[in-house]
Amino acid sequence: MDDPDFELADIAEQAEIVGKLSPREYAKLRGTTPQSIYYHIRNKTIELEYCVCGRRVVDVAKADASLQEKARQRGKELDTRSDADREQGQGDAVQELPAANPLEGLTD
Predict the structure, then answer these.
(1) Per-residue DSSP letters for 20-49?
(2) What is the pTM of this model?
(3) Are 4 and 82 in contact (CB under 8 A)?
(4) Using one digit for the tens of pLDDT, what is the confidence trace for 53-91?
(5) Domain boundaries in the chain?
(6) What's the distance, CA 83 to chain centroid?
(7) Residue 58 and residue 39: Cα distance in Å, rounded?
(8) Which of 30, 31, 42, 88 is the 20 to 30 Å CA partner of 4?
(9) DSSP string covering 72-107, please?
(10) For residue 56, what are the β-bridge partners?
């Protein structure tokens, strides 16, 4: 029986050492579905690369930066914590960015 926490730790370690993961592994690391990662690949938000072995991979740093920018455009911040940290409430939480008040600074 596979321990999901152990598997996630292996994926996180591979992301730190190699910096590249398969789209499915990247989705698991970020706590999202593989379908959403493939959606971003199709729409050119995330760039798909090929490993020397022929495997399709995603550069973790580039994908995080691309998705972070996309989230910022929607007024949110991407949660890049692992599933374990999310469940335990550790690390940086997703935060709503403050909306600019269009009336601020106006006086009667």
Answers:
(1) EE-HHHHHHHHTS-HHHHHHHHHTTSS-EE
(2) 0.64
(3) no
(4) 899 999 999 999 999 888 888 887 766 665 555 566 555
(5) 4-75
(6) 11
(7) 13
(8) 42
(9) HHTT-------HHHHHHT-SPPP-PPPPP-TTTT--
(10) 50
